[in-house]
Design a protein that fits this description.
- It is a single chain.
- By secondary structure, this protein is mostly beta strands.
- Helix content is 11%, strand content 35%.
- It contains two helices and ten strands.
């Protein structure tokens, strides 16, 4: 014998609560947003080392510098697609990775890259090696930037270095 699966009618209190809730949330656009936000994201540390220069956009420094061992692997911070991989006179090899969540990570002063434009990368995957410093007598380091929707953000707020 099957049970009757007809729902019980709502009580007056339940109906009043539902009406109040729906009215309160009516114009709450975040409640109906399908966008995947930053909540729950776990960023992978791109390189082991010591921060030698902190994020300071007022000074034109839109990332952090992490002193690292020469030829150490540089790792992708999140899953994404390499959208730029080229050698530049000022920054050496540069990689940019676009992530679905609205983030772009930028890796400058890289040595040999191990991926190309268009490659899909996974969080924690090696994407390049730490290169030489761009100034004589400077220790090898990675210049790492993190951008969210076109605005530079402090990587130290997202990653424990």
């Amino acid at each position: 014998r099957t049970k009757d699966l007809t729902p019980m009618p709502r009580s007056a209190e339940e109906t009043e609560f539902c009406n109040r809730y729906e009215e309160d949330e009516r114009y709450n656009l975040t409640a109906v947003s399908e966008e995947r936000g930053m909540g729950g994201l776990v960023f992978y540390r791109p390189v082991r080392g010591i921060i030698s220069r902190h994020f300071n956009p007022a000074d034109g420094h839109f990332g952090i510098d992490v002193t690292a061992s020469p030829h150490e692997s540089i790792l992708a911070d999140l899953d994404g697609t390499v959208v730029f991989a080229a050698y530049t006179a000022q920054w050496g090899h540069v990689l940019q990775i676009q992530h679905e969540q609205g983030f772009v990570s930028i890796y400058k002063l890289c040595g040999m890259p191990v991926c190309r434009e268009g490659d899909k990368v996974r969080s924690g995957q090696a994407v390049a090696l730490v290169g030489k410093a761009n100034v004589e007598n400077e220790k090898p380091h990675l210049h790492y930037e993190l951008w969210y929707r076109g605005t530079p953000v402090n990587p130290e707020k997202y990653i424990a270095f």
